[in-house]
Amino acid sequence: MSTITAKDFKEIVLGRRSVKNYDPAVKISREEMTEILAEATTAPSSINMQPWRFVVIDTPEGKAKLAELAMYNTNQVNTSAAVIAVFGDMKCIENADEIYGKSVELGYMPEDVKEKLVASFKPMYENLPEQNMRDIVLIDASLVSMQLMLVARAHGYDTNPIGGYDKQQIAEAFGLEKERYVPIMLISIGKAATEGRPSYRLPVEAVTTWK
């Protein structure tokens, strides 16, 4: 992918549209999809626990299964190059030692700082009430989802965030532990067959207060 200028980035953000109808002939290689996901996962997260988990649904079999769970969004499912199911890992703290250990190895922080931080927040995360943990992973996985949509646009693709699907069954349907992995959203990705429509946004004055 070529270098993105500040002007390009502004166009990426302001030109994003939710696309409902894709060119079914357009496919995305798993190598490029991996690149897109890697760039998306530079998004911020609480204490860098990166609780997002992705299921990339790009096979006919996977799409057929998903279509049954997203009955009001089957056009996006059927015509897109792929649908990315984003989940939040309720036990993301299990990766703390790997994440912070690698940070030490790469020279991002000294060992003593790593030990102090992990000893401080690991017990806290392990004992958080379920609703508090759900709130954390929902926010963090939503951040990566928005970044994923912008990264996809920088790669020349269109997207659509989807909330209308069976959240009670989707984890188990794709082999994930239901109690551990919280469904966040689906994101269809591909090349638009018809352009997404612009939509009205409330003026900043209507949604902002200054103190």
From TrEMBL:
- Provide this UniProt record's keywords sorted from A to Z: Oxidoreductase
Offer an example of a GO molecular function term for this protein: oxidoreductase activity
Q: Identify the residues that the record assigns to the Nitroreductase domain, covering every copy.
A: 14-191
The family database entries (Pfam families) matched by this protein are listed as:
Nitroreductase (PF00881)
Q: Report the domain of life of the source organism.
A: Bacteria
Cross-referenced CDD domains: MhqN-like (cd02137)
**Can you tell me which family this protein belongs to?**
Belongs to the nitroreductase family.
Which protein, by its recorded name, is this? Nitroreductase family protein
- Recorded source organism is Paenibacillus woosongensis
